[in-house]
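User: Is it possible to get a 3D structure for a protein together with its bound compound? The compound here is NDP. I've pasted both below.
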Amino acid sequence: MSVATPRTALITGATSGFGRAAVERFVAGGWNVVACGRRAERLQALVDVPGGERVHAAAFDVRDALAMQAALEALPAAFRGIDLLVNNAGLALGTRPAQEASLDDWRTMIDTNITALVTLTRALLPTLVQRRGAIVNVSSTAGKYPYTGGNVYGGTKAFVSQFSLNLRADLHGTGVRVTAIEPGMAETEFTLVRTHGDQAASDALYAGSNPMTANDIADTLWWIANLPPHLNINRLELMPTSQSFAGFQVHRG
Ligand code: NDP
Ligand code: 8X3
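Assistant: Yes, that's possible. Here is the predicted structure of the complex:
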């Protein structure tokens, strides 16, 4: 009896939130996973559990193109055939309106959410084409619906969604699938990072709101990755039931 070769996912942002839950989901489903992030001890924790032999920890800052390249070149043989790239690493920094925002925060979001994402995608495209693989980019509702303080964060996610659709056009006929998922509010370390470590603000945002969980997103990623090869989800927007839309604001006087 032949045993099927496990498929391999490379998941960025695997030390927390969506990414960590996705690693656990894919490993439980029998995939090999390259788990990426800066906090090496958290990546190691994914290795030091039952099933952890299916995880390769790749600790690097996605904004460091040389470190990214070195990590890809150092992949062990069993993890080199990437079938699925999940571009999940990303962040929002700050909630102030543009005229009061930090330019450093803006640059960090652009470097992480856009430049690093396209760099890693470009590096893995030859492998993904060869293997008729898939890319799932983690965008956001913030890329479509404007809100005060969303300025550059929302702009980066609009890029991610449009880049995903344009990738589909370029990859036409290759069999490579591309999806942008656009979640609304989910409770992770996202708000702790956005507020530069304000745990009380993070707790207050999620309190009583019944937000989506990291596992909700991991299950969605798992569903997308395991659809039959003829089926492509272009973009998928999801929100907690408790979240919906507000109207335009009007300044008077
Ligand atoms: P978390 O803060 O919990 O996780 C973010 C992950 O990104 C961490 O693993 C972090 O790893 C990684 N990361 C950030 N910067 C870098 C970097 N420079 N190099 C390498 N890794 C980096 O947030 P979420 O899980 O919520 O966020 C995951 C994605 O989902 C992000 O792109 C976010 O914009 C998006 N999103 C989140 C929503 C939410 O409400 N939570 C809604 C919609 C989209 P480390 O710090 O160890 O490097
Ligand atoms: C995260 C969703 O609404 O906090 O991407 O910007 S939001």
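The chain has one domain: 8-238. The longest helix spans residues 103-130.
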